[in-house]
Amino acid sequence: MITTLVITALFVIPAGFLIVIGDQVVPLEEAKRISRKTARSSDDRTQLRIRLEELGRGDDKDYEEFRIKQYGYSAASAALAFALLLTLSGSLLLAGFGSILSLLIIYLLIDRQLTQDVKKRRELIEAEFPAIVEMLTLAIAAGETPMSAMLRIANTASGVLPAEFEIVITKVRSGAPLHEALDAMGRRVKSVMIRRFVDALVTATLRGAPLVEVLSRHAVEARGNQRNRVMGAAGKAEISMMIPVVFLILPISILFALWPSLTNLNMFAS
To answer: Is 115 in the same domain as 128?
Structure first.
């Protein structure tokens, strides 16, 4: 059995590092070149690019690296599953089915992990938003321009939203108008709260409306939304805490309460 496993692994596992295209077997370096060309010339129907852009990894190189990682891990897991199942069962059909199933599971798990990373980053931005918008309001009320206020926050604060401000500042310094850089941030961060804030800030900047009043309203609204999220999370935690009470503690309490009565009934029955 060990000999069969070793021989199978020697032939099958290297297949995880090759990509078969048509009738040709292309090495990994060639696969990178083809993946890079495909990334530039085709639309990604799974919206992978949108999720990578939200994580700040929207270049063709980032797309290529993610796809190669996804394909490579999936192929390697399929090869390993094929080798193990073929050795243990001796059935080529079972080994093929298991390898395909393993490939699909790893492929979907990596894709799901990316979605979870995007969701976590969005939640971090929304959690940071109330404090950041208050800092921005105070800085502008003290006489700073929106650019200088965002620069101060990017240099002094840590987190995801200050990093987004830094991207905005970099684009403005490269020659882009402030409203376009802010609009790009709103499109990059898929959050309704951030989108509304960016739209209000851009509108106030273009029309010359008082920024302090606009930002103050958003600060109050952001604090209210944060309070509602905390109360909602507390309510869910309270419901979750009721589960062990209902299914564990309550039955034991009822049993202890009824035990004397049950004992007396047994005494009368006997």
So the answer is: no
